[in-house]
Specification:
The chain has 406 residues and is an alpha+beta fold. The protein contains eleven helices and 17 strands. Strands 1, 2, 3, 4, 5, 6, 7, 8 and 10 form a nine-stranded mixed beta sheet that branches. Helix 2 packs parallel to helix 3 and helix 5 packs across helix 6.
Length: 406
């Protein structure tokens, strides 16, 4: 597997487009379309929030049926959540408007929305946007990037990733895009994400791989401990590479690796672009008794507001890290733990066997000022490990969310 440049159009047979429909925003694109020329197998995971947006309900039903799909249409600005029966009908209208333009069935179009909760999607912009999207469909690199930009809300940068691998000399590609900056918490981060691949694979096998990939990527990030109403992760496989992925083969393992790579890259990009964030904060828990314990411990640290504010202030307040490990809900021996700070290719031991290691505060502050900061928690009890990603908590997070609806 190798990392390549690209997004949702990197795989064969996929096109994308963006349009300025005027749903809520003015002067910028706010609708995106991902289209497979051939019918594609589809798998997905969705928000665990009991309150689910209309597009989530629509997609869950279609994915569960297992029928092939052709397209995903997404909008930003209005979440179409908590909008009742009218919201459900408007979601259907968005899907059907695109289906009409593409001359396919309505249930061959999946939907996704992000933005303000409680507002209704206006009909006219949806229909205008569907026409513009069809006109702009392209398999170009720029089309993929524009689609990624169109789904941004408080995001400051578009998020894309792609990878490829070979099977018997044939190249298979996996590419994706996502959005997410706030209302992000494990058990599906707040996000919209679409990944495409030209591999051929049975829907059941694809769903199994997608669910597993989410567990180690999107479910391992947090910005603000809030789980959204709209979280949607969709993966479309159209088989245009001519390679069929089957369980128990080397190709299956290569595909799994590429899918995990793309989902993890997108997840880390979202964590780094958390609302108001200045740093990507990674926590690695190593030598743990089980993967489950390691995940709980790493998540506990990245979701601690006290740890996040210390990272923002470049303050090596390691006591907050030990405290967060201690209330994670798992048992361990605090008197054997080592904590190591890693940034800019350098490492600094902060804690050794549960007590301060006599480190340089000045050096710790220097490392904590980097754009990516990693803390390694060595539990010294086993061979399992896990990583979680978050960001610092800044004044700007409060400013952004204090007037989000306006």
């Amino acid at each position: 597997m190798k990392k390549i440049e690209g997004g949702v159009t990197a795989a064969k047979g996929f096109q994308a487009a963006a349009a300025a429909a005027g749903i809520k925003y003015q002067g910028r694109t706010d609708m995106a379309l991902v289209y497979s020329q051939d019918p594609a197998a589809c798998a997905g995971t969705f928000t665990t929030n009991v309150v689910k947006a209309a597009p989530v309900l629509w997609d869950k039903e279609i994915v569960a049926k297992g029928n092939p799909v052709h397209a995903v249409v997404l909008n930003s600005g209005i979440a179409n959540a908590c909008t009742g029966e009218e919201g459900k009908q408007q979601n259907v209208r968005m899907a059907e408007a695109v289906a009409e333009q593409l001359q396919i069935g309505g249930e061959a179009v999946l939907t996704a929305s992000t933005g303000v909760i409680g507002m209704q999607l206006p009909t006219e912009p949806l229909e205008r946007g569907a026409v513009l999207l069809r006109e702009k469909l392209s398999d170009s690199r720029e089309a993929a990037l524009e689609a990624a930009r169109a789904i941004m809300t408080t995001d400051t940068v578009p998020k894309e990733a792609a990878a490829s691998f070979e099977v018997d000399g044939v190249t298979v590609t996996v590419g994706g895009m996502s959005k997410g900056s706030g209302m992000i918490h494990p058990n599906m981060a707040t996000m919209l994400s679409v990944t495409t691949t030209d591999a051929g694979i049975a829907r059941e096998d694809l769903q199994e791989l997608v669910s597993a990939a989410v567990a180690d990527s999107f479910n391992m990030i947090s910005v603000d401990r809030d789980t959204s109403t709209n979280d949607t992760y969709l993966v479309l496989a159209n088989g245009q590479s001519g390679v069929t992925i089957q369980k128990g083969t080397e190709a299956y393992e290569k595909f799994r690796e590429a899918l995990v790579f793309v989902s993890t890259e997108l997840a880390k990009q979202m964590a780094a672009d958390g609302e108001g964030a200045t740093k990507l904060f990674e926590v690695q828990v190593v030598h743990c008794g089980s993967v489950e314990k390691a995940k709980k411990l790493s998540k506990s640290v990245i979701t601690s507001n006290l740890v996040k504010t210390a990272v923002y202030g470049s303050d090596a307040n390691w006591g907050r890290i030990l405290c967060a490990l201690g209330y994670a809900g798992v048992e361990f021996d605090p008197e054997v733990i080592d904590l190591t700070l890693k940034a800019a290719g350098e490492t600094l031991i902060l804690v050794q066997d549960g007590v301060a290691a006599g480190y340089s505060e000045e050096k710790a502050t220097e490392l904590l000022r980097e754009k990516k900061v990693t803390v390694i928690c060595d539990m010294k009890e086993g061979e399992s490990s896990a990583a979680a990603w978050g960001c610092d908590l800044t004044y700007d997070y409060v400013k952004i969310n204090g007037d989000y609806r306006s």
